[in-house]
Amino acid sequence: MVLPSPESDVVNAPSEHGDNRSVQTLDPRNSPKTTRDVLQIKPRGSVASTGGTYDLQPVNSNSSYPGEPPRFDPGYWTPTVLSSINWLPMSKSMSYDNMNQISPVPLLPSPNYNHATSTGLDNISQIHRVESLGTPPTMSSNTESTGRRSTWSGEYYVDGDAGRLPRIKRQKIIARRPSELRSPEFGWRLVWAPPMTSESPVGPHFAEFEYEAMHSAFLILCVNCAPVTAPFVSGDFPSLEAFDYLIHLFFKHVHQSLPFVHRPTFNPDHEGRWILLLSMASISCWFLEDEFAVEFAESLLEFLRRVTLFCDSSNGWQRTFTNCRHAQIVLLLLLSASASKHESVKMWSDRCVGELCYLVNSSICRSYPKGQYERAGMPPSAEWLVWSEDEQTRRTAFLVWQIGFLRFMQNADGRPPVTLDSIASIRLPCTDAMFEAQDAETWQELEARSSRATFLEALQNLYIDKKLLPEIGDFSHILLIYGVVQRTREVQDHVQQPLSRFEPSAEKQRSSEMNIQPVWAPSVPIYMKWRNSACDCLDILHWQANAAIGMAAGLEPAKVMHLHFARILMLVPLDHLLGLARMINIPFASSADTGKSSPEETEMKRAVQRWAISDQYKARLAAIHAGVTFWHVRRYSTNAHYEPFAVLGATLTLWALSTFSPRLHTMDQSPRLAETQETDACEIILIDRPTDDELVQQFVRDGLKMRVHMTGVDDLWAPAAPYRVLREGKKLLARLGAWSGETERAITLLDGLMMARFREV
Question: Which of these, 442, 476, 593, 639, could form a disulfide with 738 (CB 3.0-4.6 Å)?
């Protein structure tokens, strides 16, 4: 299938800013040594709407491409999954008149349809020349001639205007402009000064002796280090005030998603604290908006890498910090490396994963944090200090598990580095109010009524009792969300093993007669029960989150993002979608370059198409949460480390559903639709906006009968929709400027899909 492009297939097309942007490839090893050449990094293969028309040329079904894969056997599909429904007319209030010229066609042959001109995934028949879709007319913001104020000038209705301002406005996230990138080999320099701001830094500060220790390490490892390693091009070192500002940025931007540092008791008495502060400063650099912020972030990351390597070496400094502190440092180093644009830096991040796995599995999880009985008889101040160390250890172990699981899902390789069994017996983290208590007396009052349930007990209560334990905080809710997802994944891996179908008996059997073909998990009843139960668990957590949204006057907390993302991880074959996108981006080897699909690529297309058709109800449920993921990131983004992966997963979900879902002819099915349609059924859904549960369930059951609209895409079932979904995903990823490395890799995958031509499976 030719992914329709309302723009064109020209790579060097005019951008939205009016300039001609082309693909630029940067080899960091070839950067100049002497001058600061500002390199404008452009998105690969970026195209923008021209507002004109486009041609979708039909591809001859008898194409003579060499090695064309065979058509997919219709008997492979369940006959009942393709509902005979019709297209509904477009709403008169929308300016989509030209879409009436398009006759959507099924993506593969089926006995349920009369295919006079059937097509496959790569062939489109009888596509008309279509005007580019316009956007609905917007209301003028000018005031009326009567002299009244703007209709949105009042915060309350009592102001007397026609309406009031919305409680929560769309958050403006501006992507950091392309900054100077220098070679890691020749361009490392720590030249940066904090901006002049009236905002007073909050959080811990570097002590004078900690700053001196860090400066001494810099001189040893980065200046006077030849010939062991390449020295930095400059011996300049940021001031103490600069590092304090970076720590302030950590607690402003990072602490919400990585809440493992107990600020009230985080003082210079902790051994090795300066290395942890350095790692906190390193990850905060990615949130700077300075012109040379990326260069400074890459250089500080390299300094941190050398510090951690020297601490681990036999002739390095003797490590005096605990395993918990060590795990925190490596965890921040891992996330900083994932934000880097240089593949050479990202490659050794795998070493960080292995080190974290060892620290958590062999040390932290085995030494269960001290319980209340071990703190009996202590004065409140001493008891508070002991508890804070235990709480930070618990939170660090849970974060290592959560981030390791997300990396496992993103890479679709191997197994999660930390299993559920490793953390099952650890007590859940405390509430946010208890963790942020500023003194021992306040903490003691909150600790008396805190929950002491373990992670396994909370999961069992959620699955079996269908209720959420009281007195647990948002961080614990997020952990339970991923616990449900990983448990579902474990069941999926179990049922997909060929040996799982073997029924032991006393009779001798032949292994050669055993069916060793891979199992499609949704066809196994026990997996379906576990997955449906997991959906119920997430609904319970979502109801609680909706109550929190109401209490916050509509502001969505971060756990709402995790709830939407969890449905995508659990209901969508992301491993196949990511594998397909990566395979298409292999230079000179994908179907986009060779004109034919490899067996692996064909198999991935079949798996995705089977999901979109045979598992269509859960696919549409996942699409609902994918659309609302766009809504959340557009308005409530915190630029957290998981957001690029969440946006990428949501984009691929909507793209796959739009590309591989069956499309039905309008004229053939209209009488039957008129007989079966309910009188009170809604005909349209805005998939990237929150909606009521009744409409969600209607879309899950009868989504193909509805018009599905999305910002910047219009109708999700239109032939041009897959391309536009990818375009909207790229726009949203470009706004997440803090994790430039992750976002650029995700944009590269989407670029490959936008340029690819899908051949019939």
Answer: 639
| pLDDT tens-place string over residues 644-697 | 999 999 999 999 999 998 875 443 444 444 455 555 678 899 999 998 889 999
Whether 705 contacts 677, CB under 8 Å: yes
**Whose CA is closest to 738, among 331, 250, 31, 279?**
250
CA distance 273 to 386: 17
- Determine the angle formed by the axes of helices 323-339 and 740-755, rounding to 10 degrees: 40
Burial 578-606 (b: 16+ CB within 10 A, else e): bbbbbbbbeeeebbbeeeebbeebbbbbb
Q: How far is CA 522 from the centre of its chain?
A: 24
**What is residue 476's DSSP assignment?**
H
3-state secondary structure of 572: coil
pTM above threshold 0.90? no
In 128-256, which ranges are continuous DSSP H helix? 208-218, 240-249
Are residues 392 and 260 in contact, defined by beta-carbon separation less than 8 angstroms? yes
pLDDT tens per residue, range 518-539: 789 999 999 999 999 999 999 9
**Residue 390, C-beta contacts closer than 8 angstroms, at least 6 positions apart:** 369, 370
Q: What is the identity of the amino acid at 224?
A: N
Do residues 42 and 23 touch, judged by C-beta distance below 8 A? yes
The yes-or-no verdict on residue 357 having pLDDT over 50 is: yes
3-state secondary structure 437-465: CCCHHHHHHHHCCCCCCEHHHHHHHHHCC
Give the dihedral sign, CA 654/656/660/661. Answer: negative
Q: How confident is the model at residue 324 (pLDDT cuts 50, 70, 90)?
A: confident
Backbone dihedral region of 377: left (phi > 0), alpha (psi from -120 to 50 degrees) or beta?
left
Report d(CA 105, CA 88) in Å as an integer. Answer: 14
- Interval 122-172: pLDDT, tens: 333 333 333 333 334 444 344 444 444 444 456 666 666 666 666 665 555
List the single range of 194-198, 250-254, 569-573 with lowest mean pLDDT: 194-198
Q: Which amino acid is at 113?
A: Y
In angstroms, the CA 624 to CA 655 distance is 13
Query: Coil, strand, or helix at residue 2?
Result: strand
What whole-number distance in Å separates Cα of residue 248 and Cα of residue 204?
Answer: 8
C-beta atoms surrounding 479 within 10 Å: 25
Helix axes 240-249, 208-218, angle to 10 degrees: 100
Supply angle C-alpha 24, 27, 32, rounded to 5.
105
Bridge-partner residues for 686, per DSSP? Answer: 709
> Residue 338's pLDDT is what?
87
Specify the 3-state DSSP secondary structure of 154.
strand
Reported as a pLDDT band with limits 50, 70 and 90, residue 609 is very high
- Residue environment code for 741-750, b if the CB has 16+ CB neighbours within 10 A, otherwise e: bbbbbbbbbb
Q: How many CA atoms lie within 13 A of 269 on its CB side?
A: 5
